[in-house]
Amino acid sequence: MSGPLLKVENLTKHYPLGTGFLNKTIPVVRAVEDVSFSVEAGETLCIVGESGCGKSTVARLLMRLVEPTAGRVLIDGTDIAGLKKNALRAWRRRMQMVFQDPYSSLNPRLTVEKIITEPVENFERLSRKQRKALAAELLRKVGMSPEMMNRLPSELSGGQRQRLGIARALALQPSLIIADEAVSALDVSVQAQILNLLLDLQQQMGIAFVFISHDLGVVEHIGHRVAVMYLGRIVELAPCEALFAKPVHPYTEALIAAAPIPDPTRVRLEAPVEGEVPSPINPPSGCAFHPRCPIAVERCRIDVPPLVPMADGRVVACHVRAPVTDLLEQSNVIAGDQLALVSESHSSISG
Ligand SMILES: Nc1ncnc2c1ncn2[C@@H]1O[C@H](COP(=O)(O)OP(=O)(O)OP(=O)(O)O)[C@@H](O)[C@H]1O
């Protein structure tokens, strides 16, 4: 199979505030603006950013829990918006979600066995014996004892509940799991166990992850590539190591500087970002980060910066650090498809 497993093209979601009256223009929350990225089979793409930057809305759009205002989501090249009954069911098997709060996402009245076999039983009838065998296999996969099969979610710890949420997501052998703040509610030591479990499962089963988190420590541990979002837009997308070693966008730089440093030998370079995140109902003109940006120039107030590909494989939307003109002058060192990216859109990102 060629091409990425998941491709997101110019995805946009505006939530209208109210229903409008006498043809008055309704204000909208610009939750996601012109977001594009791709995910290869077996890859983990992390999406990071402050609260309200649109991470969960991207997850909901990927799962088709909300409809996009514009843009497309393609799985293996097929637009999920156009899928009809059978194709939609087949697609639903391939993409699963793990939520932040496993407690509220697990039915408290169902046993562990029922919870993890239910997704399969939505597709096919299982005998009692098959159900027990499947439940035991899935529990083992996530490091839990099959003896827990008859328990209720309330009898499990937070970490066990999250393992259960993962087991349920694995039941249909998905190609892609969307994990939205999947470890945020857990203690640090349990977080590490769950992250290592996800890494193991990825190696064993070749599952791709879109891993949404506001915690850069978690992202650094698990990500292959990282997309940094600010006020609905991707401002930088880079291989994980490159991003942490040398953030280019001033917002990425500020986020990394503000994150707690687990390694005491690493030195924090700059002060954390100052000021409040502006409202997505009335975002600043030009680059939405310019009112908080220490290096903003006049142009940043006027034009939205396009995502520009850099030599090390990352893309950055910053007039100062990734100016389009500089790159066009160096066109002899830029591949043709990268150049197309620069001119074609504000946020095209190749996988
Ligand atoms: N159903 C909705 N109606 C109106 N506005 C919404 C709706 N859902 C989300 N929003 C707004 O869209 C913006 C993006 O929200 P989203 O939950 O995607 O951000 P997030 O980065 O996931 O934040 P958090 O980490 O706090 O969950 C926010 O301003 C939020 O208030």
UniProtKB/TrEMBL annotation:
Keywords, comma-separated and alphabetical: ATP-binding, Nucleotide-binding, Transport
Location of this chain's protein in the cell: Cell inner membrane
GO cellular component: plasma membrane
PANTHER family xref list: D,D-DIPEPTIDE TRANSPORT ATP-BINDING PROTEIN DDPF-RELATED, TRANSPORT ATP-BINDING PROTEIN
GO molecular function, one term: ATP hydrolysis activity
Membrane topology: Peripheral membrane protein
Record has ATP-binding as a keyword: yes
Organism, as annotated: Rhizobium loti (Mesorhizobium loti)
Domain ABC transporter: 6-256
Protein name: Peptide/nickel transport system ATP-binding protein
One annotated GO biological process: transmembrane transport
